[in-house]
From TrEMBL:
PANTHER family: TRANSCRIPTIONAL REGULATORY PROTEIN NARL-RELATED, TWO-COMPONENT RESPONSE REGULATOR. Residues 158-223 form the HTH luxR-type domain. This is Response regulator transcription factor. It holds the Pfam family Response_reg. Residues 16-132 form the Response regulatory domain. The modification 4-aspartylphosphate is found at D67. The lineage of its organism: Bacteria, Bacillati, Actinomycetota, Actinomycetes, Kitasatosporales. It comes from Streptomyces longisporus. The keyword DNA-binding applies. The keyword Transcription regulation applies. It comes from the Bacteria. Keywords: DNA-binding, Phosphoprotein, Transcription, Transcription regulation.
Length: 227
């Protein structure tokens, strides 16, 4: 049963929520779930991670609910930016994918929880309240994934992609994989074309890859873009 209690320490005050998803219909459905609760209110909506960051600068929000796979800037990238911009802001990741790669990257990005869209009507309200109590919210099966992934990496000494790449390199990788030109990437990130080309060369060298196609495949495996 979902947790229906108001988070301790918040009294009767409303939890102000920033909702980011690139699909308007999904935002509408999630908003209906949240706004019917007396202690939850969506006060801002964004269509991608970059817009979510801008809205967080101009709105008083307590909690950000971010879709993981969005254009321009993923929810994972936005989560890292938001955690640095507003350390007190709680963050939940929302996704249609029961994917361990996404799950672990979400935790590392500073998210308090990970909610599957398929069961959002059951889990999302409880996850919001848990986040505001400073408690983690893990979807069913996440604990098993946590243990399995930890044991696998411990045995094989593997590094995760976000330990290999810098945040800026990850941004460039995502945009390259989405098909943007060096000029377009430079404009989006407010850097020079030469800097983009340097980042791209560094990516190929670091990852041992040869071209854009291989970068795109890597970006899919790393959870930066959807296949």
């Amino acid at each position: 049963m979902p947790d229906t209690t108001v988070p301790s320490g918040t009294g009767t005050s409303t939890i102000r929520i920033l909702l980011a998803d690139d699909h308007a219909l999904v935002r509408r459905g999630v908003r209906l779930i949240l706004d019917q609760e007396p202690d939850l209110e969506v006060v801002a909506e964004a269509g991608d991670g970059a817009e979510a960051i801008e809205l967080a600068r101009t709105h008083d929000v307590d909690l950000a609910v971010l879709d993981i796979a969005m254009p321009r800037m993923t929810g994972l990238q936005a989560a890292r930016e938001l955690a640095a911009l507003k350390p007190a802001l709680r963050i939940l990741m929302l996704t249609m994918h029961d994917n361990e790669q996404y799950f672990f990257q979400a935790l590392k990005a500073g998210a308090s929880g990970y909610v599957l869209k398929s069961v959002a009507d059951r889990d999302l309200v409880a996850a919001c309240r848990a986040a505001m109590r400073d408690e983690p919210f893990l979807y069913p099966g996440a604990v098993t994934a946590l243990i399995r992934n930890y044991l696998h990496r411990a045995r094989h000494g593997e590094e995760t992609p976000d330990q290999i790449l810098t945040p800026r390199e990850e941004e460039v990788l995502k945009l390259v994989a989405e098909g943007h030109s060096s000029k377009e990437i430079a404009d989006l990130l407010f850097i020079s074309v030469k800097t983009v080309q340097r980042h791209r060369a560094n990516l190929l060298q670091k990852l041992g890859l040869r071209d854009r196609l291989e970068l795109t495949r890597y970006a899919i495996r790393a959870g930066l873009i959807e296949p």
